[in-house]
Amino acid sequence: MKRIFLSILILSVVCSGTHGQRRILNIPDLPGYVTLKCDLHLHTVFSDGSVWPLNRLAEAYINGLDVIAITDHIEYTPKKEYIPVDLNAAWKISEASAKEGNLILVHGAEITRDMPPGHLNALFITDADELKKDSVYDAVAAAVAQGAFIQWNHPGWKSQEPDGIPKLYPIHKKLLEKGWINGIEFFNSDEYYPVILDWCRKYNLAVMGNSDEHNIISESYREPEYSSRPMTLVFAKERTSESLKEALFAQRTLVWFKDMIGGKPEYAKPFFYASISIGKVFYESSRYRYFEITNKSDVPFYLVNGPAGAPGYITLAARSVTRIVLSKAFTGQLSYDVRNIMTGSEEVLKVELKY
Amino acid sequence: MKRIFLSILILSVVCSGTHGQRRILNIPDLPGYVTLKCDLHLHTVFSDGSVWPLNRLAEAYINGLDVIAITDHIEYTPKKEYIPVDLNAAWKISEASAKEGNLILVHGAEITRDMPPGHLNALFITDADELKKDSVYDAVAAAVAQGAFIQWNHPGWKSQEPDGIPKLYPIHKKLLEKGWINGIEFFNSDEYYPVILDWCRKYNLAVMGNSDEHNIISESYREPEYSSRPMTLVFAKERTSESLKEALFAQRTLVWFKDMIGGKPEYAKPFFYASISIGKVFYESSRYRYFEITNKSDVPFYLVNGPAGAPGYITLAARSVTRIVLSKAFTGQLSYDVRNIMTGSEEVLKVELKY
Amino acid sequence: MKRIFLSILILSVVCSGTHGQRRILNIPDLPGYVTLKCDLHLHTVFSDGSVWPLNRLAEAYINGLDVIAITDHIEYTPKKEYIPVDLNAAWKISEASAKEGNLILVHGAEITRDMPPGHLNALFITDADELKKDSVYDAVAAAVAQGAFIQWNHPGWKSQEPDGIPKLYPIHKKLLEKGWINGIEFFNSDEYYPVILDWCRKYNLAVMGNSDEHNIISESYREPEYSSRPMTLVFAKERTSESLKEALFAQRTLVWFKDMIGGKPEYAKPFFYASISIGKVFYESSRYRYFEITNKSDVPFYLVNGPAGAPGYITLAARSVTRIVLSKAFTGQLSYDVRNIMTGSEEVLKVELKY
Amino acid sequence: MKRIFLSILILSVVCSGTHGQRRILNIPDLPGYVTLKCDLHLHTVFSDGSVWPLNRLAEAYINGLDVIAITDHIEYTPKKEYIPVDLNAAWKISEASAKEGNLILVHGAEITRDMPPGHLNALFITDADELKKDSVYDAVAAAVAQGAFIQWNHPGWKSQEPDGIPKLYPIHKKLLEKGWINGIEFFNSDEYYPVILDWCRKYNLAVMGNSDEHNIISESYREPEYSSRPMTLVFAKERTSESLKEALFAQRTLVWFKDMIGGKPEYAKPFFYASISIGKVFYESSRYRYFEITNKSDVPFYLVNGPAGAPGYITLAARSVTRIVLSKAFTGQLSYDVRNIMTGSEEVLKVELKY
Q1: Burial class (CB in 10 A: 0-12, 13-18, 19+), D7
Q2: Which residues of A touch D97 (CB under 8 A)?
Q3: Which of B92, B254, C32, C104 qualifies as a FRET site for C269, CA 20 to 30 Å off?
Q4: Do C222 and D19 touch (CB under 8 A)?
Q5: Contact, C233 vs C64, CB < 8 A?
Q6: Cross-strand pairs, B151
Q7: Neighbours of B227 (CB within 10 A)
Q8: Which of C11, C18, C314 lies closest to B288 in CB terms?
C-alpha cells in the first residue's frame, strides 16, 4: 500500500521522482519585480470540487506555481449530505502545509450568485463565514471589511450569459464605483473574454486568469497538449503574501494560458523583452545577414505583419533559438505585431527587434 | 467555469474528447469466458484517499475497466474531523452512476489491522457498518455472513513486514482453514510478492492485483511510462456482478501490471495463445523461412531460452507484428519460456510456437 | 558502434525493441477484400530525397504499411554531382529486402514536368530508363507500354498552381481520354484538394493519398501529433502485387490522413460500418436508454447534424467506446453526417446508427 | 509536394514550427569558458550511413548542438556501387550550410581498421584523401601532419572486443607515446566504457562521447525516453573552431548521455556547482529547516550516501526545484556522492551542499 502523503510535510526530501519535484516555469521577472505565478480560483470537496484541499497544494507545487487561492462556493455546497459545510475548512487544512511547501496560500471564498452579478471571488479574507449574507451586496461588503480583493469570475460564462459576452449590469457599476471590484477574469479554465482587457484599462482593474479547477489539474491540462494551466502573473516587490496583495490592488498583472498572454501594454511590453535576447550577426553572405533570437521563456511569440523587405512573420518558439536571415538591402526597423499578446479586445502588442 | 460532472449521468453523449471516452483494453477473452478487467482495491475521501467516490468511476471508465470496488478503511478514517465516518457512503454515492456508466461496482470495505493479519478487503458485502468489530476475527465473520469474498491485501507491505516478504501467521492459517481468505494480492500498486503465486496454488486461492489507489490514477500511472494500472483479470461466464463473484470464488484470475502477467498456468497458457496468432511462411530463401507472429494484446511477451538452431529470444511487443527468420535446418519444436508470465515464485510459463 | 542494418535481412528476429517491430494499423478489411495500406509516392537520395532506399522499407515496416512505391524524379536529380543518375537504383537496392520484410514494393518513377501536366507517378513499371523522353506524352506512353498505373501527383501544389486549386488542362483531358491517368492524389503530404473527389467520380479514377516524403517519415509525422502518414487504403482481393494493381485500376480505394477519410461512398460507407459496432442497451432509466458504440479503428468519426431529440453530435474516438444516452421519447432514426469522411468536394458520408 | 530544404540556406526564417527551431540545451558554462555541445562522430551515405550530409546539420541544429564532425569511414564504403567514393564529399556539401546555420563543422574521417588499433577519428583535417594508406600508422601520421586531433573510437565495441572491455595493445601505446591519440570515446551511441576515465587521467587524454550515428538521430534517441544524444561538452575560450581545437587538445571536456556525466573531477565539480543553486531557508518549524535547491540544467543529479542525521539521498531532477527538510539537530556538512557523475572507473564526484 503506497499511501500518498498529500501533506507536503515529509521529514526528508519530498519526492525522489521527477513528477514529485517542483517544475521551473520559465517566466521572466520584470525589472524591479519578481513574477509570482498564481492560480486564484480553485475548488475542493468542501463545495463542488472533487479533491481534498491538500491536492491543490501538491498540484501547485508540481506545476511550479508560487500562489494559490482555494475559493470554495459559499452558497453552493452540494456535498453537504456527506461533508458538513465549513467554509474555512480548506484554509485550516492547508495553511501549515503551504508554509512547508514554500507556497503562498491565499484565504478565499467564492460568492456565488445568479447573474448579475454572477460569481465573485473574495481573496485575502480572514473568515469566510462572515460572507454568508442574503444580499450579495452585504456579502461583498463583509469581504471588503476584511480587506479582500474582489475578483469578478468568468463574466461571460455561458451558463449565466448564454451568448458568452460579458455585460456590465447596474450592480457591477455600483460595485465598481465603490471600488468593490478589483479584478476580472480574462481567462477562466479554457475560456477567455476579450472585452475584459478593455474594461480593465477603463476601470483600473487587474486582469486575472485562473483555472477554476473542480477536478484534477493534470487531467484537465494534459501534457504535451497543454504546457500549463491558466494563471495570473503578478509582478510583486517581494515573494510574500503582502507584496502579492499590494501588486494585485496596483493591477500589476498579466495572464497566461496556452500560447496566449493578455494584459496591459505597460507589463506586456517589458515581459516580451525580458523573455528574449537578440544575438549579434553571426554570418554575412554577399546578400544576407544572419542572426539569432533566443526565447528562453515557456511562451512562444508569433510575430506578424513584418515590414517590407524583411521576414513577414517570425515564430519565436518557447525555449528555442530562431535564426533570422535578413537581406542587406533592408535598412528599416524590424517592427512586428505579436499576434498572441493581447493588450485590448482588438489590439495586440507591437514590438521592435533591435539587431 | 467548467464544472466537471463526475456523475457520468449526463443526458447526451458523455464526453466528446478522446480523454473522456472509454479506452479499449486489448485483453483477450478466454474460450468460454469473458475477461473482466477489475481493480478491487480503491480509496476515497471517506477514509484516507483524496478524491470523491465518483472520481473512481470516471477513472475506471476512461481506463477501460469493467469492475471496481471502493474499499475504504473501516478502522482508519483520518478525515473524520471534517467528514463524518460513513462506511457505506462511497457505495451510496456511486451505485446509480455505475449502472449508467456500464461499470460493475462491488460494495467493499477494508478491514484494517496490524500484522497479523494485516489488511483484508471484504468484497460483495451489503453493509460495511456491520464489519466494525473489536476482533478482526469477528469482522471477517460478519463479512462472510454477508457472502463476502475475502482478499488479503499487500501481504508484504513494508510498513507491516519490514523485509517485504509475506508470512503466514497462525491467524492466517486459521482463516484459511475456515475458507475465510479467498484471494491474496500479488500486485499492490507498484509492489509484487512472488510467493503469493505458490500460496494461491497450494491453498486454492485467487491471485489478485489491484492499485490500492489513494490519490489520482492518472498521476500514479502516467502514460507512456505506464500502460495501465495494476488489475485483476477475471474470467467470468458473463459480464455481471454475480458471474464476477462466481469466477473469483472459482479462482479464475490472472493479474497484470506493466509488462508482467502472474497467475496459474491453467489461465496463463490460454491467455498467451489467445493473445497471439502465428502467420504462414510468407517467404523462403535458400536457407531461411520467414513468418510473422501478431500480438494484438496490450501485453508484450518476452520469449527466452529458445532451442538450439532457432532464435534464442523473441520479443512479441504489444500491438505489434514480429518477424521470425528460421533456418531451414531447424526442424525441432519452437519451445520458449515466457519470461514475463510468472506462474510460480520460481516458475514462468512455457509455450510452443506452431508455425 | 551500433551499425544499423537497414536491410531487414537479419538472420534472426529483426528487432527486439518496440520501435523496431511492425505496428498493427487498426484499419478494417471490407467484405470480400483485404485492405492494403499503401504509400505510393516516396523519394530517396537517388533524386532529391535525403535517405537511402532501404530506409523507406524500414519506415514502412515500422509504420505497419503493406505497400510502398519508391518514385524518384526522372527529370530532377540534384545530387548527380555525387550520385550518378540511376533511375532503377532504388528498386534494385530494395527488391530483395522487401520480400524478406513481407512488404510489397512497387517499381515506380515520377515523371516530373512543369504544369501542365505537372508531376505524374508511373507505378508498376519494369524499367524507369525507358521513361526518359523529351515529350511528357512519350514518357507516359512508355510507362503505359510497361503496364503502368499513372497517378497525377499533388494537382494543386502551390509551386505549380499558386492558388492551390487543381485545374484540368487540355493535356490532362487528352491523357484522361486515352486512359493514361488512372488516379489522382487527394492527399499529398499535409495538403489535400477537395475537388479531386468529384473528378475521381466523374472520370472513374482512383482517389490516392501519399506522403511524397523526401526526408524522414518519423520527423514529418511525429507522434502523438500525427497518428500516421497519409496513405491510400486499397481494397484488394489478395495481399499480392497483382491484386493491388487490379484493385487500383478498379478504383477500390479510400485515402486516410490525420482524422480525415476521403473517397467514394461505395467504399466509405462499408468502411465506416466495418470500423464500429453498436452494443445492446445496457441500462434503462425511467427516461433514458443507455448503449455503447465501439470504434476499434485508428480513425475517429465525428457524427454531426443528429436528429431532433437525439444527441446533436457524437464523437466516436479512435480505439474507444462511446456511451450514448438516448431519450425514450425518441423513436426516430439515428441519422448523422460523418463530418470527417469526405465523399465529394461538398459532400460527407451519411450514416445511420441501428441500436 | 513539400520539399524539405535540408540546406539551411533559406532566405527568411528557417522554420516556423517548434520542431524546426533550435532547442536550447540547458547546460551551464564554466567560469571563463563557453560550453560547446559537440557530436564528433557521424556517418552519411558516403560511407555506411543512410542519410545525406545536410541531414546531420539539420539534426544538430534542432538538437541545439554547437559542433559536429562528419567522419565517414575511409576504408569501408559499402555503397560505392551506387555512390562513388569521395572522402571529402560530406565536408564539401555541408561547409557553407554550417556557416549559415551557426554550426561549427569539423572536417573529419574515420580510419577504420581491425583491432588493434580499431577505429580512429581524425578531426580537424584538411583532406581525407591523404589518409588512405595501407599502414594505419601512416594514415595517422598523415592526419597528424594536417594538425588532426586523433580520437580512439568505441574501444570496447563488441565486434572488435568480444568481452566489451577496452584493451591497450602495443600499437596503442606506441601511438600514445608519440602523442597520436588525443582522446578516447567513453560514450559511443548507447555504450560506455568505465576504464576510459582512468586512462584519460593517466595518459592526459580528452574524454569523448559521441553518437556514431549511422541512421536517424531522432529515431535512435526518441523523446521522452532519451533527453538527447550522447555528446562531448567542450569548455572553450570562444565559440570558434580554433578555440574548440585548443580546448580538445587541452582535454577540457566532459561527456553526457542520458542521466550520466563522465570526465575529470576538475571539470565535473564546477559543472555540478554551475548547474545548481541553493536557496535560503524559507521556513523553520520547531524541529526542521526547509530550503530549496534549484537545478536549472538538463542533467539530473542523484546524491547518495548522505551524512547521518540528514537525508540519505537527494534527487535533483533536471529543470526542477527540490525541497530539502533538514533536522535542526543536524549541524554537520551536507556531503554527498553524486552517483551519476563518474570521475573514474570506480569513482564518483563528491560534493557538499552549502545552505
Answers
A1: middle
A2: none
A3: C104
A4: yes
A5: no
A6: B121, B183
A7: 16
A8: C11
Q: Are the Cβ atoms of B102 and C322 closer than 8 angstroms?
A: no
Taking contacts as CB-CB distances below 8 angstroms, the residues of chain A near D277 are none
DSSP B213: B
> Are residues B121 and B41 in contact, defined by beta-carbon separation less than 8 angstroms?
yes
What average pLDDT does the structure give for chain D? Answer: 94
CA distance D23 to chain A (A): 5
- B257: which residues sit within 8 A by CB, 6+ positions away? B187, B190, B192, B209, B228, B229, B230, B231
Q: What distance separates the 2 farthest-apart alpha carbons in chain D?
A: 78
Q: Which of A343, A349, A355 is nearest to A272 (CA)?
A: A349
Give how far the C-alpha of residue B274 lies from the chain's centroid of Cα atoms, to the nearest Å: 18
Please name the residues in contact with C202: beta carbons below 8 A apart, sequence gap of 6 or more.
none
Rounded to a whole number, what is the distance in Å from the CA of A36 to chain D's nearest CA? 16
β-pair partners for B276: B295
Residue reference for cell 503530404? C189
Count the alpha carbons within 13 Å of A293 in the hemisphere toward its beta carbon: 27
Packing angle of the helix pair D170-177, D136-145 (nearest 10 deg)? 20
User: D159 vs C1: CB contact, 8 Å cut-off?
Assistant: yes
Query: In Å, how far is B121's CA from the nearest CA of chain C?
Result: 29
Q: At what angle do helices B136-145 and B170-177 cross, to 10 degrees?
A: 20
User: How confident is the model over C318-341, as a mean pLDDT?
Assistant: 97
Give the contacts of A10 (CB within 8 A, at least 6 positions apart).
Answer: D325
Q: Are D169 and D135 a contacting pair, CB within 8 Å?
A: no
Considering the entire predicted model, what is its pTM?
A: 0.95
**Cell triple for C268:** 466509405
Q: State pLDDT tens for residues D74-128.
A: 999 999 999 999 999 999 999 999 999 999 999 999 999 999 999 999 999 999 9
The grid coordinates of residue C137 equal 506524352
Q: Give the count of beta carbons closer than 10 Å to the beta carbon of residue C273.
A: 17
Q: CA-CA distance, B264 to B270, in Å (whole number)? A: 11
C-beta atoms of A2 and B54 within 8 A: no
ipTM: 0.93
CB contact under 8 A, B218 and A214: no
User: Taking CB atoms and an 8 Å cutoff, what residues of chain C touch D156?
Assistant: none
Calculate the CA C208 to chain-centre distance.
6
**pLDDT averaged per 10 residues, chain D (length 355):** 44 38 97 98 98 98 98 98 98 97 98 98 98 98 98 97 97 98 97 98 98 97 92 98 98 98 98 98 96 98 97 96 96 97 98 93
Secondary structure (3-state) at D121: strand
CB of A111 within 8 A of CB of A80?
no
First to last CA, chain D: 59
Distance (Å) from the alpha carbon of A143 to chain B's nearest alpha carbon: 22
Neighbours of chain C (3+ CB pairs under 8 A): B, D
Closest CB to A45 among B3, B52, B89: B52
Q: Which residue of B has its CA nearest to C102?
A: B282
Omega cis (within 30) before A116: yes
pLDDT for C1: 54
Which parts of C179-240 fold into alpha helices (H)? Answer: 195-203, 217-220
Residues 6+ apart with CB under 8 A from D143: D109, D111, D122, D125, D131, D150
Closest partner residue to C22 among B8, B24, B321, by Cβ? B321
In this structure, what is the dihedral angle of CA atoms C32, C37, C41, C45, given to the nearest 10 degrees? -140
**Which of the four pLDDT bands, split at 50, 70 and 90, describes residue C18?**
very low
C332: cell is 426516430
